[in-house]
Amino acid sequence: MSTEKGTISINTENIFPVIKKFLYSDTEIFLRELVSNAVDASQKIKRLAALGQFNGELGDLVVDVKFDKDAKTITISDNGIGMTAEEIKKYINQIAFSGATEFMEKFKEAKDANEIIGRFGLGFYSAFMVADKVEIESLSYQEGAEPAHWVCDGSTSYEISKGSRTSRGTDVILHINEESEEFLDKFRLQEILDKYAKFLPVKIRFGTKSTTEKDGEDENGKPKYKTVEVDNIINNTNPAWTKAPADLKDEDYLSFYRELYPYSTEEPLFWIHLNVDYPFNLTGILYFPKLKNEFEVQRNKIKLYSRQVFITDEVKDIVPEYLMLLHGVIDSPDIPLNVSRSFLQADSNVKKISNYITKKVADKLQEIFKTDRKGFEEKWNDIGLFIKYGMLTEEKFAEKANDFCLLKNIANENYTIKEYYEKVKDIQADKDGNIVYLYTSDANQQDSFIANAKAKGYDVLVLDGPIDSHFASYLEQKGGEKVQLKRVDADVIDKLIQKEEKIELKLSEEESKKVTEIFNKAISRKDMEVHVEAMSEEELPVSVTIDEFMRRMKDMAKTGKGMGFYDSLPDHYKVSVNGNHPLVKRIIESSEEDAEKLAKQAFDLALLSRGLLTGSDLTTFVKRSVELI
Ligand code: ADP
């Protein structure tokens, strides 16, 4: 074969400097592209052998990545299908895009290397991001094929001649350019291979590594060890997600988790094995991590693969937001990985995949709930936040999660939303037919209010999580007919759940006015509004409450968007004076000075009971108490 020169069939002067410069930020993906090509070539020969179209020796299929610091080269070699000179001309020279004009137009809009590579099939050409010159040495599997050598210096012209390979397969030799010398480094290359090639389906070898091996026994019968050099194989060619769920035990899932996240110290709670082939292709394993009671920054993110090639761990548009708290892998050749984010959002496959994952996650939770409710309840502390968040953000998920979302009360009992409705619907119905759910956000601080509710035979839920104020509103909308949620300290208990029977106020209108005046004077705080109310004698003389609506809006403003207005409002309390309490009679009958002292004392007591009395106010209270004893 004589040397042949030609021009790569694109009509622009010199496209490579453009690619190189433009793609600068993700240059490391050249290795992903070239190693993937080598893996594809290896799999193709395997397939041909399986089909009986190749009868030669298959050998041990392995892709080698080597570098030579002095020669400034990186070589990717495979013993795959190989290419004839004709095939090189066909596959490599004709860049798969319709024309240079289109390319030049489109590249201006493109945001990253992935986008350009994907759109124009420039996988192989990504080599020119890091190399001045690229050579191919290849020998096709076909009988009688001649080895071919191709070389291109980054201009649009190439040279093809007789090659030197004597065994089937391809070497791609990159002559690394000056700006990319960082890649001529063992650790840098190892890092890139670990990232992109860890689960490729064909063995990837990167030099050798030393390990210790048993070497007989010493004279005392103790084992001896020696250091040996072994192949440094980067990848597990058969990762758990590619296997059938029936072939995997719990231990396999756990050890795969450790393989994915070697630095993780916590074990996952449970997992879901994803496996569909219609209407799209998707496999994967999602793990439920142990969550702290806050949205911690997730270090272990879901990794996205396409046919076992790592693509990204930025899965924002493919996985619904609430599922981003999960860990694991998703592998789908159907996700358009090489296009821009805006395209991803509009892509119907992506939407379908996201819906599918939501459904699978909901189904799995439902299954655990049904088959092992006790175990499910035990895990609730870890998964509750995640489930509630999902319900608040994803309607489809909420529809299913309504059946297994748990409500916990202060007695530590768990109820589903339906069960809880049944439990309280009679006893906690008010005179207008509203079903009032009482809840506490801090059982310690709201203890006296909880005690009052319990004394009435009411139940109190614990909603003390970071998004529970939003969840309270969700329950009102979706948790059953006429459900209202009120925090136990939102008012005095008889006001929280107003029943038909009315308690008579024992004070005359004039006395009532007088009591209000005394208290207003004694308290003299703008944020406290005094009301005299008819309550039963056993209740506290004074209670300090904070309106449910305002408080919840403020809480939600802290964890939600666009409600900052509420957060900026000052706290506003209601002081409910129990007009039927004997103390109030005493106050009316006392001298002005004593009346004020008693009123102040009763008010401070109310503040104290909810942890609002602190500092010098607390000291004054203690002193006054001593005087009053
Ligand atoms: P893509 O991989 O997306 O098709 P590339 O530019 O990366 O685009 O490669 C173009 C073609 O060149 C491949 O489809 C394949 O036919 C051929 N090719 C590339 N690398 C190899 C290799 N190592 N062995 C055999 N064929 C290869």
From TrEMBL:
Residue span(s) of domain Histidine kinase/HSP90-like ATPase: 26-180
Gene: htpG
SUPFAM superfamilies for the chain: ATPase domain of HSP90 chaperone/DNA topoisomerase II/histidine kinase, Ribosomal protein S5 domain 2-like
Protein name as catalogued: Molecular chaperone HtpG
Family per similarity comment: Belongs to the heat shock protein 90 family.
Superkingdom of this protein's organism: Bacteria
InterPro entries xref list: HATPase_C_sf, HATPase_dom, HSP90_C, Hsp90_fam, Hsp90_N, Ribosomal_Su5_D2-typ_SF
The organism's taxonomic lineage, starting at the top: Bacteria, Pseudomonadati, Bacteroidota, Sphingobacteriia, Sphingobacteriales
Keyword set, alphabetical order: ATP-binding, Chaperone, Nucleotide-binding
